[in-house]
Design brief:
Elements (H helix, E strand, L loop, with lengths): L5 E3 L5 H6 L1 H11 L3 E3 L9 H11 L2 E9 L6 H10 L5 E5 L5 H20 L3 E4 L8 E2 L2 E2 H7 L7 E5 H6 L4 H5 L8 E4 L1 E2 L7 E2 L8 H11 L3 E4 L8 H14 L5
Parallel strand pairs: 1-2, 1-12, 2-3, 3-4, 4-5, 5-8, 8-9, 9-12
Antiparallel strand pairs: 6-7, 10-11
């Protein structure tokens, strides 16, 4: 089985990051993670200072997010940022869709943005939740989006938990994405009716099979994210890290 570099999506520790940006990232590095999916630094910190901090901690920038439910952002600014921090050349977005027509319109716009990113050497990724598994004319919104975007211009950063929450098997769903999934979000699900978020390896998802399909489809980085935690978020990140290490996933 392939061993993957494992990063963190800092949304997991968003409250700690807002209170103590440097200290929160230091704790991520102390756990052992090698990357963060992070954007430009907070007010008062330059990008150069952010890079010096991340270099000191041994954390690579895996990529960044462009925002939520918007296609209005500065492509060149994000490409410049990733270039400046020598980061993973990936920018992800998440959108909402109210109709098939809206999916198709946004797919067209994503192709245009993806072409601009490609010219800058950046992969443009779509990150899902569960609402993309609503059907329009018998097809999932996510399937329509994938069908109507160019695989060379729009790739994916799908999320194992949200695929399962949407009613699909993550392993089976990911198989269709060969060459189109440079990043993968790892997130587990508790057993039971609530289907609450769980630390990786503590829930019901089959991460050994997920790792195998990730290798098959060309995933480069796995990124741990937990939207909400029943314990301290850093402890949740530690548990996920140790479980992934125990399963032999770590590069």
């Amino acid at each position: 089985m392939k061993r993957f570099p494992i990063g963190v999506q800092p949304y997991t520790i968003r409250e700690a990051l807002a209170k103590d940006y440097v200290g929160a990232l230091e704790r991520v590095a102390e756990i052992g993670y090698k990357g963060v999916e992070i954007g430009p630094p907070p007010e008062g910190m330059s990008v150069d200072s952010q890079k010096q901090l991340l270099d000191r901690l041994g954390l690579s920038v895996v990529g960044c997010h462009a925002g939520f439910d918007t296609l209005e952002f500065d492509v060149d600014r994000l490409a410049d940022y990733l270039e400046q921090v020598d980061g993973g050349r990936c920018v992800a977005i998440s959108l909402r869709f109210a109709s098939k027509e809206e999916v198709l319109a946004k797919a067209k716009r994503m192709n245009e943005i993806g072409e601009r990113f490609r010219k800058r050497g950046v992969a443009f990724l779509y990150h899902n939740h569960d609402w993309e598994f609503e059907k329009f004319d018998g097809a999932y919104a996510l399937d329509l989006l994938l069908e109507h975007t160019d695989p060379e211009l729009v790739k994916t950063e799908l999320d194992t938990y949200w695929i399962a929450k949407g009613g699909e098997d993550p392993v089976a769903y990911l198989k269709q994405l060969e060459g189109r999934a440079p990043r993968l979000h790892l997130k587990d699900m508790e057993a039971g009716e609530e289907r609450f978020f769980a630390e990786v390896g503590e829930g019901v998802l089959d991460f050994r099979s997920i790792a195998q399909v990730a290798e098959d489809i060309g995933v480069e980085w796995m990124v741990v994210e937990q939207d909400a935690c029943r314990r301290d978020p850093f402890e949740s990140l530690r548990i996920s890290y140790e479980n992934l290490k125990g399963m032999g996933f770590m590069a």
